[in-house]
Amino acid sequence: MVRIVPFAVEQWMDEYETWAKYNIAETCSASISIDDLRSLSDDPSRDPLSTSTKLTYGAIRGSQTLRSHIARLYAPPTGDDSSTTVSAENVLITPGAIQANFLLLYTLIQPGDHVVCHYPTYQQLYSVPESLGADVSLWKTSGEDGWKLDLEELKAMVRPSTKMIIVNNPQNPTGAFISQEVLAGIIDIARQSSIYVLCDEVYRPLFHSLDKTEWPPSLLSLGYDRSIVTGSMSKVFSLAGIRLGWIASLHRSIIEDCAAARDYTTISVSQVDDRIATFALDPLHAGKLLDRNLQLAKRNLGILKGFIDAHRDTCDWVVPRAGTTAFIRFSRDGRPVDDVALCQMLQDSKGVMLVPGRRCFGEEFKGYVRIGYVAETEVLETGLRELGEFLKAEYASVPLI
């Protein structure tokens, strides 16, 4: 019988986000409206919505235009081997990346399989394989060494039964990234035993603190036919409300198998969501939206860094290089504070929402909280100001662990 453990971070968000005054726990780049989306176009006659379209099930795998736009996100640099080219047929549209991940794991993982998962990360990526009967090994990283992955450790973790290696790039909650060199090393290890490699790329390419020449490629660009990526419109493209994500792979049979399994769940995605995403990912618009969010991330990270620098007596971190999240450790008298109590007391007192690391990412992350800093700048500034007031007046009463 399938038994799945509670999804801690999503339960926390559900309990606290609806009444937070200053939600700086959100992981999406600041959301945009349909009017904001229209403003990206230089052609006023173009519209992301059409009131005359009949609302049928639509294209079961996603419209051809949308899948072509997504495939273009994985276009190899000029001069690369054409075997890495992704076409629309290599893409399957899903209701959000969360369904993309679930569907893929449900399709490929069986009882008795061994899975290695990058950690800490989004709980879905290790709890779902466990629920399907897989033995999951956590490939752990630490803030003490900058959240770096150790390839030698990965080699030692691989077994004859290893079916999949799962990574997250850029990474939630730490804001770290996996370099091209390490990605290539993961592929080399996987190729030796024909292991699938899944990379959750929902935060790619928000490499806001890297020169563009340093941006690591998508896993698909490395040409391994058992590589799979998932993505969505939520984090990078500010459209979480349309609930649209995707699976992409060079291995067409993976897409076919996932499509067959999906017939038992959602069948298709909303035509409205498909049309909005198609408009947003049009090459004339997608670059503008990405630039907007890269600039927002850079500006807001500077604000957050100023806050951390001013409160070094209470908190420390590894500065995030990519994505939208930071993992910050709070302590007092050399001991970690109770991060769950900190988050609860802060929201009760100031209306500021954070996510506790110990509750939502693993018991070893005592004192850690996750901040989502690519919110509207005013929300982040006000939330940090209120957090600063809390630290002055009430921090001494937060329990220690």
UniProtKB/TrEMBL annotation:
Keywords, sorted A to Z: Pyridoxal phosphate
GO molecular function: catalytic activity; pyridoxal phosphate binding
Tagged with keyword DNA damage: no
Keyword Acetylation: no
Domain Aminotransferase class I/classII large: 50-378
InterPro entries: Aminotransferase_I/II_large, NHTrfase_class1_PyrdxlP-BS, PyrdxlP-dep_Trfase, PyrdxlP-dep_Trfase_major, PyrdxlP-dep_Trfase_small
Family of the protein in this entry: Belongs to the class-I pyridoxal-phosphate-dependent aminotransferase family.
Protein name stated in the entry: Aminotransferase class I/classII large domain-containing protein
